[in-house]
Amino acid sequence: MVTPSAPTPSDVAAKLTPPEPQAIVVFGATGDLTRRKLLPALYHLYLEGLLPPRFAIVGYSRRELSDDDFRKLAHDACMEFGRCRMDRQEWDAFAAGLSYVQGDYMGAGALAPLRTKLEELDRERGTEGRRFYYAAVPPDTFDHVVTRLEEESMTGDARLVIEKPFGSDLESARELNAILSRGFDESQIFRIDHYLGKETVQNILVLRFANALFEPVWNRRYVDHVELTVAEDIGIEGRGRFYERTGAIRDMVQTHLFHVLTFLTMEPPVAFEPEDLRTEIVKVLRSMRPVRPEAVVLGQYEGYTEESDVDPASTVETFAALRVEIENWRWAGVPFFLRTGKRLPRRVAEAHVVFRDVPHEVFESIGAPEIPPNSLSLRIQPDEGISLSITVQRPGFGIELDVAALDLDFGQAFGGLELVEAYEHLLLEAMHGDQTMFVRQEAVERSWEVVEPLIDQQLSPSPYRPGSWGPAEADALIAPRRWMTT
Ligand code: BG6
To answer: From the CB of 251, is ligand 1 less than 6 Å away?
Structure first.
């Protein structure tokens, strides 16, 4: 049944049409993020016919490059990190839209050449004066970027995408917001958390709110606990300077893990509309209690202090496991166990909703062993899918109980369809001006409040062996339960 407020097929299709003509400016055009994610995502959107019909992509950064150098950088980036075909003709047409402006953000008028370039592109490529800025620059540069844009009257009704970290604590997050608000209205600011663009994260909402089956049991009455593990096998990959100021709590917990947690725990929004959804996210974050330091285990992998740009006496955590509580009618008393870290055994992100035991063991009387509880596992990456573990009768004589899984593999279920990259989803949505999957300032502030006790206390991490699941204390934190991702 389609309710009057439900999106009509044409609304949905509208999102799959190319955005309006616009010029896309990438500040920080030679950086890692631009090469690994943004340029390949833009090229892929182009191949899908989802870039604006008239577009220009301008790279802006300090390095001296010609337009052709930038095109080459983009080509190499798409070859190395892209997931799509490199077709000569298609590439040439895309590359014709790429240009480069060299400059910094320091003195007044620094962006004047960019402004002139954009005006030129409006005439040459028909971008109609619409601006889409992507600030792929370190957080301490945001202030300068906004100031310079303002000076040149370049904010107007432009959209600005900014990358996490949104501050490094509550106070600095507020300061950052004050800076952004000088030049931009909240409706123009797109705070990106790429986890919200992952298909399986978005699927959590569909699973919960488009199926009658799960929502009735999605609460304290039926759920024993929830685990969310986001593990990486890589270390800090030469990002010592960044990581020394960040650590796992700021880099992963306060951002990606909390956002996935809000999707797992929010109330059903009134409609799948930006403000309805973002309001529910803020509501559930407000119900989260500030994390108690005794409910946290921090770790640091052995060898971390020998990485480049890392203080040999560093106490920055590369691993965190914590117990989070949500004080509302749905979740009171249900523990949420979150775990993340670098140099763990493998790259995996999974959420497990573990249900309570059956109220009465009918099969005990015939000597059946204790049956494990049901659990629903959401595989965010890799092998994206959903698995429901249930107890069944093992084929054969007599009654013998066993556990089996109803397993859905997204790739296979949809005929080997490749999943769309998070940045592709999010760039497309931002170019359309759709803020649904972008983070509201209130959510940023509340997440900082929740982790504030940990940041204030400066807890010291326990060492762990690279390739292990972190310090042994993490097992004690969840006991008598056990981590399901292994
Ligand atoms: C980034 C963090 O936001 O997310 C990195 O800064 C981390 O430290 C990365 O490696 C993980 O993202 P993904 O998509 O590879 O799981």
So the answer is: yes
Same domain, 158 and 257: no
CA of 339 relative to ligand 1 center, distance in Å? 14
Cross-strand bridge partners of residue 393: 401
Which residues does residue 233 pair with via DSSP β-bridges, in sequence order?
none
Q: What is the pLDDT of residue 128?
A: 96
Which position among 144, 194, 225, 256 bears the catalytic label? 256
- CA 183, 188, 193, 194 dihedral sign is negative
State whether 35 and 78 are in the same domain.
yes
Shared-domain flag, residues 151 and 210? no
pLDDT band at 155 (very low <50, low <70, confident <90, very high): very high
- Calculate Rg over the CA atoms of the chain: 24
Mutate to test the pocket of ligand 1, among 32, 193, 194 (most ligand atoms within 8 A of CB): 194
Q: Are residues 214 and 106 in the same domain?
A: no
Q: pTM surpassing 0.90? A: yes
> Is residue 256 annotated as a catalytic residue, yes or no?
yes
Q: How far apart are CA 82 and CA 90, in angstroms?
A: 14
CB atoms within 10 A of CB 9: 8
Residue where a domain terminates, one of 147, 163, 179: 163
Q: Which atom of ligand 1 is nearest to the CA of 256?
A: 3
User: What is the CA(154)–ligand 1 centre distance, in A?
Assistant: 31
Domain count, the chain: 2
pLDDT tens profile 254-303:
999 999 999 999 999 999 999 999 999 999 999 999 999 999 999 999 99
Where in the sequence is the domain holding 449, given as residue range(s)?
196-478
